[in-house]
Amino acid sequence: MTIKVFEVPKIREARKQNxxxxxxxxxxSAYKNGGFISYFxxxxxxxxxxxxxxxxxxxxxxxxxxxxxxxxxxxxAIKSGREPIDNYMLRCDVNPPxxxxxxxxxxxxxxxxxxxILDFLNGYAHAxxxxxxxxxxxxxxxxxxxxxxxxxxxxxF
Length: 157
Known about the structure:
single chain; alpha+beta; five-stranded mixed β-sheet; 5 helices; about 40% helix; globular; Toxin_YafO
């Protein structure tokens, strides 16, 4: 299976300054090729705002911070020879919000092996994407931008 990972210009530019982001995208490619990445948690769709998410398929992977309880539990399982914890169980803590990180992406509609990295939220991921509370308007605009980029990519691939 050949995976091809594309990046929005913002991510492509940020990679030049951020070696962590470059490694994260390499790890994403390995993960989508069936590899196990110990700091990758739940990989799931965004569901809000519901009116926009019908066919957009905007997904995110919870990225476990090294000080996060689930990251430590995963490392302990690996070190002791036990089965790794199922990624679906591994979610970011929103407290402290600095540990709440996510890699946001979409998948091609026709070519399921094509992915577009839409954004990387290095902290406050849920606060930035939740469509409620005091940031509702800004978060809705942000999610609408992600949906537009995802739909353009999915229409092309």
